[in-house]
Design a protein that fits this description.
Pfam families: COMM_domain, COMMD1_N. The chain has about 190 residues and is of the alpha+beta class. It contains 6 helices and 3 strands, in the order αααααβββα. The radius of gyration is 27 Å and the shape is elongated.
Length: about 190
């Protein structure tokens, strides 16, 4: 039973570290985690455990380790001597935790690494221009494109573009050239 409690506490510690570091939850502090999960441990003992788990999570997350890489990494950590290594229960808990949380941690890291606004949405339609600027009737088809730009959680900005048939053809030609360039690079490697 003590092993199960130890595994749950370690999993909760890893979750707390992840919530604070990767998801920005400032309510979860080191003192909160110690008092809730390891009240019988001294502050120094807890800090060593907390820092070790935080460091291991950082290494695993920054490398975005898949299952094979994680197993090799954890095996190396269990072979280390002294307080810098992991015991097999800690390695197992860390492995289970990473398997369950890898995608969310990765999404968070990707979101944190975007400095510029990104494309959040795109809408388009084709309309007819019914009049020209001097009052003459034109009846030319135009493509109207609305781009939604912004960062997650922030207010979006919209950019509206209007393309006539020639500009649509030019954009399609440039996109085809770009695809050819990408294909040539991919096929070379």
């Amino acid at each position: 039973m003590a092993d199960a409690d130890s595994q749950r506490s370690l999993s909760a510690l890893l979750n707390g570290i992840t919530q604070r570091v990767y998801h920005g939850n400032t309510e979860i502090t080191e003192d909160f985690l110690k008092n809730e999960l390891y009240p019988g441990m001294t502050q120094d003992e807890f800090r060593v455990l907390h820092d070790k788990m935080g460091s291991l999570l950082k290494s695993i997350a920054s490398a975005d380790m898949d299952q094979a890489q994680l197993e090799a990494f954890l095996t190396a950590q269990t072979r280390k001597q002294g307080s810098s290594g992991l015991n097999s229960d800690q390695a197992a808990a860390l492995g289970r935790f990473w398997k369950a949380h890898r995608s969310r941690v990765r999404e968070s890291l990707v979101a944190q690494s975007h400095w510029e606004p990104g494309l959040k949405g795109l809408r388009w339609r084709v309309d007819l221009h019914t009049s020209a600027s001097k009052g003459t009737v034109a009846n030319n088809p135009v493509a109207l494109v609305e781009l939604e730009m912004g960062r997650t959680g922030e207010k979006s900005e919209f950019v509206c573009l209007e393309f006539d048939e020639q500009k649509v053809n030019l954009v399609l030609k440039k996109m085809a050239e770009l695809q050819e360039s990408i294909d040539s690079i991919v096929h070379r490697s």
